[in-house]
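Justification of computing resources. Each target in the renewal requires a structure prediction run like the one illustrated here; the chain below, 116 residues long, is used simply to show the kind of job we budget for.
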Amino acid sequence: MSGPSIRYGHREGDEAIKEAAEVLRSSCRKEDIVARYGGDEFIIFLPQATDDDLKIICERIFAGCKEIFIRGKALSLALGTATKKNMNTGMDKVLKEAENNMYKCKRKQKANSQKD
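Resulting structure tokens:
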């Protein structure tokens, strides 16, 4: 998952990261773990989540972003998801899949914004 797509100065960037973290936290279930992964990237662990749970949480995140405005623009996050369905699959592989899906999301968001 990647953070705000609008370019900010330090103060606005810090505010965007804090707002993004709050949207992520408030969109998740009590048992989920939200952590900053680095820079403007976050990771969420969703123990025992189903594909339906994942879809609902992503929808909550996107809806929450539409309610947060920084410099007059709604907060924008690119989400990349992956599910570890096999105990033998390493977390590095799951994280790579999520990262690849995040980049797909970013490309889709960019294409949609160019249409507007």
